[in-house]
Amino acid sequence: MSLRNFISEAISPWMKNEGPDADIVLSSRVRLARNLSKPPFPIAASKEQLEEVIDLVNKKCVTHTHRKFGELELLRMEDMKKNEKRVLVEKHLISPNLSDESKAGAVLLSEDESLSIMINEEDHFRIQVLLSGFQLTEGLRYANEIDDWMEDKVDFAFTENRGYLTSCPTNVGTGLRASVMMHLPALVITRQMNRILPAINQLGLVVRGIYGEGSEALGNLFQISNQITLGKSEEDIVDDLRSVVSQLIQQERAARESLLQQSKLQIEDRVFRSFGLLSYSRTMESKEAAQHLSNVRLGIDMGLIDNVSGNILNELMILTQPGFLQQYAGEILSPEQRDQRRASLIRERLKLEN
């Protein structure tokens, strides 16, 4: 398969759109944790009880078409190969937990993959909406629509004084986790992130790497999300996050402008060194690739590199992950082979721009 066709099939359709402030906010995600009222929560349920949850979803939800998200496809983890599940993790459609540890896990996916509903992960349901750019308010609206749509069909665990009940106490209440994926290279280069991160944590928000809790901020990509779910409305939680993200956007833009005015030669050298290495290297580790891709994307957004799509960072940060490299190769690869394939895929992708 040609790389162009592979990209067309592999990249989620929603990622190809360019949402508001997409030069800094790559994506917005809103997730709602929900449980059924009668079966035990997944952490205490038997495999047979969890299978009943999947059967209920298959009967009540799969047979219905949603007005925005269309038909939903049910994928059972036990029916999928290891690398197929890995690809879903790399696309942020399921968690590593669901892929590796669930007794009877599944996911409901919309055709454009902007909606995924994880089944029997930590909770019976994790409703997740993914949108390009800075669209937290829109994400919350769509997530609430799906929440209402499902609540018409199944009975959620809910009490008036505690709200929605979840396996983890930190999710009790709204069950809401809202997050954005931000590209903040200028704040990292100017060493402002070290000052900003503690301030963000004091505001009840948390900053993680590209794959959430415990992951590194590869390629200057940071996931920023709420920590508090109880005692605030969904709208207030999203508004608080929106306010902080808006300030970070302004600070990143100011830092980029400062770099152009005060250190243009050094930034150009950084950007074009990375562009050269990506264009000609024969082997490249994932961490190195992420850093060079971040530099090139910064060069594109600052107007230093012409005729290269800004989507290249979004695409290659996913396509150069182990699961996708092996899917493209059609075989299991050793770490050394993956490094060679990664470099080859990046070179080929850059040639497509010409």
Automatic annotation (TrEMBL):
Catalytic activity, EC: 2.7.14.1
Superkingdom: Bacteria
Motif range (RDXXRA motif of the pArg binding pocket involved in allosteric regulation): 338-343
Function according to Swiss-Prot or TrEMBL: Catalyzes the specific phosphorylation of arginine residues in a large number of proteins. Is part of the bacterial stress response system. Protein arginine phosphorylation has a physiologically important role and is involved in the regulation of many critical cellular processes, such as protein homeostasis, motility, competence, and stringent and stress responses, by regulating gene expression and protein activity.
Positions of the Phosphagen kinase C-terminal domain: 24-255
Keyword Transferase: yes
Record's keyword terms, sorted: Allosteric enzyme, ATP-binding, Kinase, Nucleotide-binding, Transferase
A GO molecular function held by the record: protein arginine kinase activity
Enzyme class (EC, first level): transferase
Organism of derivation: Evansella vedderi
Documented activity regulation: Appears to be allosterically activated by the binding of pArg-containing polypeptides to the pArg-binding pocket localized in the C-terminal domain of McsB.
Catalytic activity: L-arginyl-[protein] + ATP = N(omega)-phospho-L-arginyl-[protein] + ADP + H(+)
Binding-site positions, ATP: 27-31, 92, 126, 177-181, 208-213
Protein family according to the UniProt entry: Belongs to the ATP:guanido phosphotransferase family.
Family annotation (NCBIfam families): PRK01059.1-4, PRK01059.1-5
Keyword set includes Disulfide bond: no
The protein's name: Protein-arginine kinase
InterPro entries: Arg_Kinase, ATP-guanido_PTrfase, ATP-guanido_PTrfase_AS, ATP-guanido_PTrfase_cat, Gln_synth/guanido_kin_cat_dom
